[in-house]
Predict the 3D structure of the following.
Amino acid sequence: MVSPTSTHYTLPFSSGNFSAFVKPRKPDGVDEKKAYFIGSGLASLAGAVFLIRDGQMDGKKITIMEMDPIPGGALDGMKEQNRGFVIRGGRELENHYECLWDLFRSIPSLEVPGASVLDEVFYLNKDDPNYSRCRVTHNRGEPAKAGNRFDLTDEAMNKLRDLFMANSEDLEGKTIEGELGEEFLESNFWLYWQTMFGYEKWHSALEMKLYLHRFIHHVKGEVLPVSTVPNAR
Ligand SMILES: Cc1cc2nc3c(=O)[nH]c(=O)nc-3n(C[C@H](O)[C@H](O)[C@H](O)COP(=O)(O)OP(=O)(O)OC[C@H]3O[C@@H](n4cnc5c(N)ncnc54)[C@H](O)[C@@H]3O)c2cc1C
């Protein structure tokens, strides 16, 4: 029988649960170490929790340093007396935030005994699902009639594919506009993308490529070239 506390052993990467749910052995010398994180954004907070949970470091030995008056970085927030808890911008989460959900299953709920924050988020979505009756508006409140269609021309689709496949190094300093062109910028795909992720046409093409990789599973359905769709523009 191998002791779960014997020799330190690096967990192998695998895509399944076999290694994902194994409790890591306590790293050698962790009790003599301290950790410092620069910045109090999600990356530092998540890193600190994983260090406590998986690295088994005492939380008192972890210091997070922040230069801004409000902690939280891009996800800062504050409690305002008459408005409640306020954060800037809406937040979209999805079911493949593997690290986040793994993290949240370890954080106990403040309000529901025995539940985790993952449980709370999951059941909130079951009990009080939210959806949009209109995806995008323009002209001060008129629905943008995109008709749930991407309306990508053959050329726009080819350029999008090329961006998806491009080497990251080749995209340094390049813009979305420069890589994807006018036909793409006129498509409903861009309208949806831009309003979902807050993109501008002068933003980084590399950033767009990385987001495409990250969220491609949300691009649902058959993407037909405009030329094959009857009555397309
Ligand atoms: C309006 C808005 C909406 C968003 N919506 C979503 C969404 O729906 N879904 C989603 O997944 N993501 C969303 N994001 C992105 C997400 O919030 C960020 O990717 C994430 O919060 C970044 O975390 P981070 O820790 O990597 O960096 P940051 O949050 O940028 O944290 C870095 C921290 O380090 C501090 N810092 C930097 N240098 C120093 C220094 N030298 N000394 C001390 N402190 C320093 C900064 O002040 C900052 O607090 C959104 C972002 C914004 C702004």
Q: What stands out?
A: The helical segments are 17-20, 42-53, 98-104, 117-127, 154-165, 176-185, 188-197, 205-215. The radius of gyration is 23 Å. Residues 224-233 have pLDDT under 50 and may be disordered.
